[in-house]
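Milestone 3.1: sequence recovery, worked example.
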């Protein structure tokens, strides 16, 4: 695959997996308060602290294993619907949708391990006593330096690759993946510090605003953990869409430049010159065709050979074209020509001369090298001056042939891997000229391969990918929003006694409803701001890697921001019924 496509694949994997990882780490903290109540009850019947921690780890492990089993069942059931789905005229069988054994094993091990690890970390700051929970964690002061170090290190890993055209190597892939992950992780690391820094300076305002701000000032950890997945998803989606928009713009500009000349090329493996002449005649007789030309070309090498294990050096490469005199005159200025003549152009190899021996079966660098096929340039070979490629082949090929031979001078069957290369010009004003041309090519040989600068297949494909990733990002945000609902309800449940006290003092429902809205909105808005900055920075770095202009897909940025705002309203609306149920004076009872 080409470098931009490799970048797109890597970044799509990172952008899709990072929110899932953050969401897994966050969702494992759901239900902590109820778990602590159960652990306190176990202490009351004789369990010690180490036992309660083992029990808490066992609960998390069992839940994660049930989740893995449920996910496997959903995956195996969903893959049965792979056959009806078609993308770009390609679909797959259910057997094709199979995860690699190492990836499946890594998921089966890492998810339960993460569940146990997160649970043990959460237990580290509390002491479970028989009559309740003692939180012995000191006041948390969040430091910003190490949080800034993560995205800075990610940028440092990616910047060296931006100094030259990106190449698909293992080291570059690792640097890109790790650097982009650190940049996205930096968003989740910076968000708690940013929320604390902002809400710590807020003063005054309406009562719902003050309730929300004070709640965040006392404890913002739960709210920011739930929002972390949204920020990573938005940042990754912005970066990937910027990369695709830059690629799409580059393809559109390239096709706009090269498509000005109505020209089509065809090629296939062939060593039959009479067949090539018949093909040229059929193409020239096609309605709308203004010109057709073609040769049979191949590569040769110099003798003695260079190191066969690494193939030929560039200086040892000789390009050969075989064709009629009329076709060869399109490639070079020939003094005179008849069948049996051969010409040396010195286009690239200046040392070729009559009497030089060349190898018609050069090593390709793949597999064992074939035995040499020496051929001596006849002493009758003459020198000709090659025409500039722009006058002969247009924007397609920049090949400048070193040897021009007529079929009687060098039979195409002696060449190794000869290819028939055809170039066709046509009139855009002729109705359906391109379709007539393609029909003729199919009649000549159904295996002829076409390449042209007329159609831009990338535009529709990239638009489909952009739409697909936008929908996937939206679904990810909605799933994270579902987790945010659970987190919000958990927070309300922890504050149910406080809510009952406020209700007993006559606090209105609308006041508390607005406080829930602001308590959800403040972390999300700050997280979206961080995601916007990180996504734009990461997207700019990626576009620099493929030497593309920095293009921002503002509709996608606005759309992702709008979906994030919609998630806020969605979470608030669904958390209102539990809020109202908890606003009752009987919540003050203690058993």
């Amino acid at each position: 695959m080409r470098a931009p496509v490799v970048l797109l694949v890597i970044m799509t994997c990172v952008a899709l997996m990072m929110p899932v990882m953050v969401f897994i780490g966050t969702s494992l903290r759901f239900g902590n308060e109820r778990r602590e109540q159960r652990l306190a009850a176990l202490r009351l019947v004789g369990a010690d602290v180490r036992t309660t921690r083992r029990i808490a780890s066992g609960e998390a492990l069992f839940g994660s294993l049930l989740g893995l089993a449920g996910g496997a069942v959903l995956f195996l059931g969903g893959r049965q619907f792979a056959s009806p789905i078609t993308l770009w005229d390609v679909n797959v069988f259910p057997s094709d949708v199979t995860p690699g054994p190492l990836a499946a094993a890594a998921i089966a091990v890492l998810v339960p391990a993460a569940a146990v690890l997160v649970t043990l970390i959460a237990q580290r700051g509390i002491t479970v006593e028989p009559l309740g929970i003692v939180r012995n964690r000191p006041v948390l002061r969040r430091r910003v330096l190490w949080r800034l170090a993560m995205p800075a290190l990610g940028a440092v890993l990616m910047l060296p690759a931006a100094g030259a055209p990106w190449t698909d190597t293992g080291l570059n892939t690792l640097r890109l993946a790790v650097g982009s992950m650190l940049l996205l992780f930096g968003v989740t690391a910076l968000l708690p510090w940013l929320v604390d820094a902002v809400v710590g300076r807020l003063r005054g305002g309406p009562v719902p605003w003050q309730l929300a701000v004070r709640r965040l000032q006392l404890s913002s950890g739960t709210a920011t953990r739930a929002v972390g997945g949204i920020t990573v998803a938005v940042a990754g989606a912005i970066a990937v869409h910027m990369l695709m928009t830059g690629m799409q713009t580059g393809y559109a500009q390239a096709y706009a430049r090269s498509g000005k000349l109505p020209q089509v090329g065809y090629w296939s493996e062939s060593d039959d010159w009479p067949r090539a002449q018949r093909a040229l005649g059929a193409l020239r007789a096609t309605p709308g065709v203004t010109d057709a030309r073609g040769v049979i070309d191949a590569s040769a090498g110099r003798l003695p050979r260079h190191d066969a294990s690494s193939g030929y050096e560039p200086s040892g490469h000789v390009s050969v074209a075989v064709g009629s005199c009329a076709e060869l005159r399109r490639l070079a200025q020939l003094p005179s020509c008849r069948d049996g003549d051969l010409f040396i152009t010195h286009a690239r190899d200046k040392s070729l001369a009559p009497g030089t021996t060349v190898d018609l079966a050069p090593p390709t660098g793949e597999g064992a090298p074939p035995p040499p096929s020496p051929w001596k340039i006849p002493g009758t070979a003459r020198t000709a001056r090659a025409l500039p490629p722009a006058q002969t082949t247009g924007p397609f090929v920049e090949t400048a042939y070193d040897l021009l031979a007529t079929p009687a001078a060098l039979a195409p069957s002696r060449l190794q891997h000869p290819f028939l290369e055809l170039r066709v010009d046509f009139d855009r004003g002729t109705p359906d000229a391109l379709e007539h041309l393609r029909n003729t090519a199919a009649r000549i040989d159904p295996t002829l391969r076409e390449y042209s600068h007329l159609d831009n297949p990338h535009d529709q494909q990239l638009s489909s990918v952009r739409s697909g990733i936008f929908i996937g990002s939206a679904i990810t945000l909605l799933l994270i929003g579902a987790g945010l609902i659970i987190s919000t309800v958990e927070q309300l449940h922890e504050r149910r006694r406080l809510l009952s006290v406020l209700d007993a003092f006559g606090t209105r429902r609308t006041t508390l409803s607005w406080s829930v809205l602001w308590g959800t909105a403040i972390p999300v808005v700050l997280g979206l701001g961080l995601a916007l900055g990180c996504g734009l920075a990461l997207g700019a770095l990626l576009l620099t890697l493929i030497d593309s202009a920095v293009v921002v897909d503002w509709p996608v940025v606005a759309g992702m921001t709008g979906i994030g705002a919609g998630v806020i309203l969605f979470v608030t609306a669904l958390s209102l019924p539990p809020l109202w149920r908890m606003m009752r004076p009987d919540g003050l009872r203690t058993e």
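Residues 280 and 292 are 6 Å apart (CA to CA). The chain has a mean pLDDT of 80.
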